[in-house]
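Z., the sequence and structure:
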Amino acid sequence: MNCPVCGHAMVQENFGLLVQVCENGCKGIWFDHGELERLDHVGEGMGPALEAALQSPRKNSRDRGRINCPKCGIPMHFHQFARDKEVNVDECYSCGGFFLDSGELKEIRDHYLSDEELKEYTDKIVNTVPGYLGAVEDLKAEQRRATIVESLTGKILEPTYWGRP
């Protein structure tokens, strides 16, 4: 597989699981579906190849444009990593793979958000969306109304409601 950023051949390295690294080029790392979640915080993975990758300085060019998935060949999506609000990653929505530029794995591990921190951060962002809190209140009112209608409907359908045994 060739690196989607610099085109060099990627080599397989053992981080406690096998990943593809652009060893002779930009030092980017390719993770197949589900692999990044197994290495995204401190204490996960092992070995000299992982340690070397964590020492690589962060290098990524924000103006490089979209890159193509090295497995599928389709354009990857550039977005914030779910557990780190400071690192943008490239994800293939077809095969589920991730490409991290040099140094991004270390950044993700250094800023990894716990479940509680992630919920707090998500709530903070969601609550700033115009009209969101009003929509939540409207939904709650609709749910209360549906519960009342459902309980009344159940009583109407009971034979004793109509005077029948």
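The chain has a mean pLDDT of 83. The CA atoms of residues 84 and 112 lie 5 Å apart.

Let me know what you think.
H.
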